[in-house]
Design goal:
single chain; alpha+beta; Muramoyl-pentapeptide Carboxypeptidase, domain 2; five-stranded mixed beta sheet; globular
Length: about 140
């Protein structure tokens, strides 16, 4: 399963998880989720093209067991293949964060949350649609 899934992403990038490996969780999506992931990847292809550098998916699809293992919300859009946590491949998170906020101004999406944790990890949680199918264009910051 190493073929390109979209212009810049492989399906594995949306499925890989160190927690899943550590806990022997089979993080396998349904066909419906794969179709959602294709739509998400297409949106992220355009974002990556505009960014001009690589974008890493630090968390993509999560099956129920994986979502629970990482402390995800029961209603997480990761479970439907409509959300991904993103980090810039070049490591310049401050520039990436500013880029994402500006890039999304004229795009249809649901949420972009600039997140960080106490360990100093930073990422952008991006979701294409809400559970209701809405695209609310919400951007905000959150420390977990």
């Amino acid at each position: 399963m190493s073929a390109k899934f979209s212009e810049y992403f492989r399906l594995e990038e949306f499925l890989e998880s160190s927690v899943a490996k550590q806990k022997s969780i089979l993080n396998s999506p349904s066909w419906e989720v794969v179709e959602n992931l294709k739509e998400l990847a297409a949106f992220l292809d355009d974002m990556r093209e505009a960014w001009g550098s690589g974008i890493n998916v630090s968390s993509g699809f999560r099956c129920d067991a994986l979502n629970e293992a990482v402390g995800g919300q029961p209603t997480s859009l990761h479970k439907k293949g409509l959300a991904a946590d993103l980090q810039p491949a070049n490591g310049d998170f401050e520039a990436f964060k500013k880029f994402v906020v500006d890039y999304l101004k004229d795009k249809m999406f649901d949420e972009a949350i600039i997140e960080s944790n106490k360990k100093g990890d930073k990422w952008v949680h991006f979701q294409l649609r809400s559970n209701n199918g809405f695209q609310r264009k919400k951007v905000f910051s959150l420390t977990v």
